[in-house]
Amino acid sequence: MNKRNNEYLVDIFKTYNDVLKVLLAEVEATYSATPTLLFNEIRSSFDHIARTYRDGIEEYEIENQLKKAQSHIRRAIIDCYKFLNVFYQEKIVKFEKETRNIDLISIDNGRFYNEFKQNHELAIESLREAKKLEGIDTEAAFQKYQESYNYLYDINQLITENYKKVTYKIFRQSSVYISKILIWVIIALLSGIFLSSPVLKILKSIF
Q: Total domain count for the chain?
């Protein structure tokens, strides 16, 4: 293997160690398992690397095999971003449902809501662009999936950092709602008691 191909191989392993392994660990922690799709991409990548050690293989063949190996590593990274994006997006949707009646603008003088909304819009836009580019420009799609992941990750960190403030708002809103129900029930009960009381019957007989 010549120097150029050796550097190519080193780059593949560096990408695997520095990027893919980190994302794999996050996917495993998130889903309590590693999706078969990711295993297949990694296996295919190492299969192409193994082929570079065949007896009598030419340097141009080694280069082709390494390019295919790198392509599978990149594909695995994109798939990791997809799995994590789905997870974070579902958490955000759940958060939006739980806080649909909450005034989020009042948290940190609007900073929380503005940052949340801006990052979410950017994440969705990056996802749209990534899906359009996939199959046309793999590298550009890769960058867009990464962007989307970063935005969604930042949103979830923002929610975590402001968890106490948000739950306090939810508690206050729930308390107000329950109080209104209790007042309505008490009024209804008092009305029922009054309408059936002897005093009311006497008033009716007089008037």
A: 2
Q: What average pLDDT does range 44-71 have in this prediction?
A: 93
172 and 145 in a common domain: yes
Can you tell me the distance from the alpha carbon of 202 to that of 120, in angstroms, rounded to the nearest whole number?
66
Assigned domain for 178 exists = yes
Sign, Cα dihedral of 63, 66, 72, 76? negative
Q: Which domain holds residue 6?
A: 1-80
Q: 3-class DSSP state for residue 15?
A: helix
Q: Is the pLDDT assigned to residue 200 strictly greater than 50?
A: no
196 and 103 in one domain? yes
Provide the pLDDT confidence category of residue 134 given band limits of 50, 70 and 90.
confident
In contact, 127 and 148? CB cutoff 8 Å: yes
Contact assessment for residue 80 and residue 38, using Cβ atoms and an 8 Å cutoff: yes
Contact 179, 116 (CB under 8 A): no
What's the pLDDT tens digit per position in 78-131? 999 999 999 999 999 988 888 877 777 877 788 888 999 999 999 999 999 999
Query: Tokens at residue 82, please?
Result: 């997809």
What length is written for the chain? 207
| The amino acid at 73 | I
The CA distance from 162 to 129, in Å, is 30
SS3 annotation, 149-161 = HHHHHHHHHHHHH
Q: Which residue has the tokens 């082709």?
A: 64
